[in-house]
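Lab notebook: predicted structure, single chain.

Context: the supervisor wants predicted structures on file for every construct in the current expression panel, including those that have not yet been purified. This is the next one on the list. No modifications to the sequence; it matches the entry in the shared construct table.
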Amino acid sequence: MKGLVSAILLLLFSALCFSLRAEAAADILASVNGENISMPDYRVFVTILDPSLDREKVDEKILRKLIEEKIFVQEAGKKGMTVTDEELEKGIADFLNRINFPYEELQKRITGQGMNMDDYRKLFRENMVMSLYIRSEINASVKVTDEEVSQYYHQNRQSFLKTPALMKVKALFIRLGEKPSLTEVTDLKIRALKIYAEIRAGISIETAVIRYADEAQKKNNGYLGEFGRGELMPALEQRLSGMKEGEISGPVWIREGFYILQLIQRTETSYISAEEAGDRIKAILRKTKQEEKLNEWKRSLWEKASISISPR
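Prediction complete. Output recorded below exactly as produced.
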């Protein structure tokens, strides 16, 4: 009888141990060079990324980030890089302040998931070590030459526009009636030539506007506005493009009638100089190079690392 009881107890104990091992195995999400990443690790990592995210559903992108961090931290460890307790606490405080998340709320979230602040600090420290390693090994090694800055400026000059080309224009506009007859069109053409002849004889475009334009134009003394490229009707922009400041055009015909134009002022396109844009360009190029080098470095580490991801 005692032998039977002992056998039963042994079976129950074995079943319990198997269950615990299965549960522990199910808790492992990945392994990086022999170091396991568990579900609790994942929950803490998600909390570090964004406390508002779902910590129970494993997101492949977030898990990949965690795996990458483990690889980086292992590499940093080979270099002897560390973060002091004081630096760690300041880093956590700065992070929570940046995302406007109270420390007390963070503690509630952590303990609510069956973890403690030591778990959080451990992974946050690893995150800081990774950032330190990237800054020292990747970012600090990137250099930008004056030749690269100059080349970027000339290839992307439109990005450094200071003031666009603008034209200030006055105009006299006489409108055709709706569905005009051939006689009406002919009469308007004769009228246009007479008005232009008066202007050439010496009257100002403002005087012509007062004499011949409708009331809406008279209120502005013929001032049409200030226009950049492509903002005027093509026929008007084309005529103005060849005019000098102060010059008055002959009649410009469009479907609705005709314009007589005066170019008041032309402002040519101007750009921020290469010297003024230098720091901005260096920052752009440095960031691009850093990202390229970091991605290249990530690929090489992934290729060298022994990584396994548990099926979910």
